[in-house]
Amino acid sequence: MTLPVTAPAIWGRIPPRNKNFTGREELLTKLKAGISDQVTAVLPHALHGLGGVGKTQMAVEFAHRFRFDYDLVWWVPADQPSLVRPTLAALAPSLGLPPATTLGVEDAANAVLDALRRGDPYRRWLLIFDNADQPEDLQDLLPQGGHVLVTSRNPRWDGVGHTVQVDVFAREESIAFLNKRLPRAISEDEADRLAHELGDLPLALEQAGALQAETGMSVAEYLRLLAECTSQLLAEGKPSEYPVSMTAAWRLSVNSLAEKVPEAVELLRCCAFFGPEPIPREVFSRTPPGMGQPLGGLLRNPIRLARAFGEVGRYALAKIDPPSRTIQVHRLIQALLRDELSPADQARFRGEVHMLLVAAMPAEDAESPSSWRRYSELIGHVGPAAVAESHDPEVRKFAVNIVRYLRLSGDFAFAQHLIERLVDQWTADSGENDLDLLEAKRQFGNILRDRGEYGAAYESNLNAMERTEALVGPRHRMTLQLLNSLGADLRARGDFADARDHDLRSLERHREAFGETSIDTLRAMHNLALDHGLNSDYTKSKDLHEAVYLLFGESPEANATHITNALGGLARAVRLCGDYGEACDLGEEAYAKAVDELGAEHPLTLLVAKDLAIALRRAGELERSLEQAQEVNARSVRLFGLDHPDTLAAAMCLANGLRSTGDLDSALELAADTVVRYPKVYGSEHPYNHGCGGNLALLRRVFGDAESARRLNEKALAGLEVKLGRDHHYSLTVATNLASDLKELGEVESACKLGRGTLRRLRATVGDEHPMTLACAANLSVSLRELGEEEEANGLYKETMDVYARTVGLEHPDAVVAAESRHLDCDFDPPPI
Fold first, then answer.
1. What is the pLDDT of residues 47-96, one digit of tens each?
2. Greatest CA span in the chain, whole angstroms?
3. Of 463, 154, 201, whose CA–CA distance to 333 is shortest?
4. SS3 of 12, please?
5. pLDDT at position 241, please?
6. Which residue, among 828, 496, 535, has the nearest Cα to 690 in the 3D structure?
7. Among 643, 702, 703, which Cα is nearest to 675's?
8. Half-sphere exposure of 288 (CA within 13 A, CB side)
9. Alpha carbon distances (Å) from 407 to 87, 410, 415
10. Strand partners, 10
């Protein structure tokens, strides 16, 4: 039985087939045989040759001709290495993976590469990396398991994969191409002479054929003009890396177009200062203020503009793609167009491109994922258009927004590469005390923090803030934005008290500058609420989170992210206060809102879901909590990787859930792995590292190794005391568990002494009726009874059970353990910072 032949399920970004494609049969056969002979594809195949020989067209033809052999075909422009990951990331939804808007570009691209290597869901796939330069630029981005085709002018690809050399046409191919390209027949002798004069270069032949087709020019006339143009070029004596035949053919086409539609040449020259990637037609739909003639006049007349686009396409000087509404100029033609212009004209066209890019910037802020598609269309033109070199404030704002888009969409590597380039260029152009430069440095600090370089982020932001304040004063918005960033840096470093003190001052300055209800002030309030929670002042944290949530709800500037984040913060603060039932109710509402408005796999949704899992566990709904924690952890691993801070927190939440439901082996394995990973992200002395070490100690004691647990808890407690002091909730949690270790080891008197001191501190820190206080009291009553202090033990036990009865209820798992005179185990869940 013969199976039906079907087209690829995924057919993405493939340029349209050239209807005039001719020849190359031997090369295509060789390429197909080479790829098909591989049992398991481990090396890429590279089409190598000089510019203009048709490598890209051959790759396009290969994709179209053999598309039925694949389930997936995907085109990756590779001349700018920093754009490769975003293009790969765009494939994610087609593979059943979360999109880059949810996952971030880096993680989405990595997920795509992993899926391709595994052949899930498609085993037969073809990736084409067009115009790749250095092989090392694509290291780790060429997946195995399918077919990879590369086009490049760099001969070094020969040492990386299987190379197929693409040269100029054979003469018979040139003749066949011209006969197909020209609407009226020419003799074989005429075609032979034309091919000879143009060096059989496919791009030059395309130019010649298009010009003759449009003008009806005879071959003899074209050859005469070509000879004159060639002589003129040689007389000019300008050095050029391009074949003279190509330059002459191009100049003839441009001259002819200029006679027919002069404005079209202006449009074409403007396109030469964009990147070689497709340019959205939408870029030319607005006339920026200050755009001069003749381009400004052309943009204001849609009929003339449409004709100009049509003419440059008919002359084969650009590729017009109506379905995607883009125009694309071959990089060789772009270079020739630029080289013909004086420095002054080059600067003028570059400035016009900058104005067009600014005008094309999305109206929505880069924070909004709805703006990301447009930013992704513009990103490929930022480098080639030399945006970094502009002194215009609006152009610089556009450049910073591009960086913000890259950062917010998760492409941290490209964001850092671009911001470093901007900082270097603007420092050289404008000096250290330039406001645009300082805004770029603020973004640089944010990126460093995103990448876990907390110390460097703090130093960068501190320097930028001091310079900004000296330049524009303490009430300027940028000064205060940098002030807010410093608070985030301090939290990320684990300096919780310093962060709180800093953010108290920051909030007052925000109120003075912007008022009580501005978005900037509300963000500062939210940060301070986080600080209070991280410093064990849970009531203050709850009250401030509640105020922030209500004010965000009344603000016309607030979006779904603001409100969901505020509600999630409130639910967390309520849980930290010990009000577990209310925390579950708020958490359910926050989670439903996040799923509805942000999506199930948005990072904020997963954060809210994790907090809900913790609240459910604390409330005693262990099975529901475990199910939620398992789902959050699985999604976090898939979306962010194992070493992301959100994944580490989700893993610790799951380990605690597994322990609570009795799956001790899995809990120990996961906790031990997570404890090893934490220092890689936060450093060895971060409070979260020590808190999670206490969780591992707890499990070691449960498994009967109380001595190992004691050593781990003593180390964790010492580290937390240095960083946070003894009266912090985290320190007291570890101390409570350490007292249990001592009791288990038979050191009951030491356990009671430690328990008494810890209980006193807990009552002062979180209150008499907080669940953590009750756990410590219940444990102490057990140790006191074993020590023979019956009266004190009985009084403490009765007092504790009375509080359990009127708070969480005697059916709560903690109350059940306390009633049975067993020791309660107290775990730690790292909150967001």
1. 988 888 889 999 999 999 999 999 999 999 998 888 899 999 999 999 99
2. 118
3. 201
4. strand
5. 67
6. 828
7. 643
8. 20
9. 16, 5, 6
10. 72
Residue 385: C-alpha distances to residues 82, 355, 399 (Å):
15, 11, 11
Q: How far apart are CA 145 and CA 118, in angstroms?
A: 7
H and E: helices and strands count for the chain? 37, 9
CA atoms of 400 and 440, how far apart (whole Å): 6
CA dist 229 → 212, 247, 283, 790 (Å): 16, 9, 34, 110
Beta bridge partners of 76: 129
The dihedral through the CA atoms of 486, 491, 493, 498 has a sign that is positive
Instruction: Give 158-210 as a DSSP string.
Output: GGTSEEEE--SPPHHHHHHHHHHHSSS---HHHHHHHHHHTTT-HHHHHHHHH
Q: Per residue in 346-371, pLDDT tens?
A: 999 999 999 999 999 998 888 777 78
Q: Are strands 319-321 and 326-328 parallel, antiparallel or unpaired?
A: antiparallel
Buried b (16+ CB within 10 A) or exposed e, 514-547: beeebbbbbbbbbbbbbbbbbbbbbebbbbbbbb
CA distance 126 to 145: 10
Residue 33: which residues within 8 A CB-CB, separation 6 or more? none
Distance CA 402, CA 279 (A): 16
Structure tokens at 271: 């396109």
The phi and psi torsions of 76 (rounded to 5 degrees) equal -125, 100
> What does 727-765 look like in DSSP terms, one character per residue?
TSHHHHHHHHHHHHHHHHTT-HHHHHHHHHHHHHHHHHH
> At 73, is the secondary structure helix, strand, or coil?
strand
Alpha helix positions (H), 557-621:
560-576, 580-598, 603-618
Nearest-angstrom CA–CA distance, 596 and 317 = 48
Cβ atoms of 359 and 288 closer than 8 Å:
yes
Measured at the CA of 654, the angle between CA 761 and CA 570, to 5 degrees, comes to 60
What is the rounded CA–CA span in Å between residue 437 and residue 400?
10
Q: Rg of the Cα trace of the chain?
A: 33
Residues whose CB is less than 8 angstroms from the CB of residue 430 and which lie 6 or more positions away in sequence, other chains included = 391, 436, 437
Per-residue HEC secondary structure of 428-490 comes to HHHCCCCHHHHHHHHHHHHHHHHCCCHHHHHHHHHHHHHHHHHHHCCCCHHHHHHHHHHHHHH
Alpha-carbon distance 607 to 590, whole Å?
Answer: 10
**Cis-peptide, bond into residue 278, ω within 30° of zero:** no
The whole-number pLDDT of residue 3 equals 37
- How many angstroms separate the CA atoms of 50 and 6, rounded? 35
C-alpha torsion sign, points 546, 547, 550, 553: negative
Distance from C-alpha of 107 to C-alpha of 99, rounded to nearest angstrom: 10
Question: In this predicted model, what pLDDT tens digit does every residue of 5-34 receive, in sequence order?
Answer: 567 888 888 888 888 888 888 888 888 888
Tell me the DSSP string of 620-683: T-HHHHHHHHHHHHHHHHHHH-TTSHHHHHHHHHHHHHHHHTT-HHHHHHHHHHHHHHHHHHH-
